[in-house]
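Reopening this ticket.

The earlier resolution said the output was attached, but the attachment link was broken on my side. Pasting everything inline this time so it's all in one place.
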Amino acid sequence: MNLPENYIPILIQAAVGLGFVAISLLGAHFLGPQQKKGNSAKNQAWECGIPSEGNARTPFSIKYFLTAVLFVLFDIEIVFFYPYAVNFREFGMEGFVAVLTFVAIFFVAFFYVWKRGALDWDK
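Inline output:
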């Protein structure tokens, strides 16, 4: 049954998680190093005594982020295959059709990304 008292552990876990986030953010703000004003040489990035060249904030190629998103997407697909692999006999034909539909949707997305050139590293 969906009684309100069944949700108490979930609410406690959510409260503990949010409390941890709040304490971490406040602790980092108050206990972390404070920005002090200094001269321009002191505020520059420094790496082993080598003078910096150019702008350190040059943007990354969008292909890097697209590859990361694709990795996460297909990694999640593998995670969803695990319950099916463990219980494929109990799911029967209905489960098999559901997994085939799931795989078909991902293959359509994969071919779309492939045709758009997102997997071409030379471009």
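Reporter confirms the inline version is readable. The mean pLDDT is 81. Residues 88-115 form the longest helix (28 residues).
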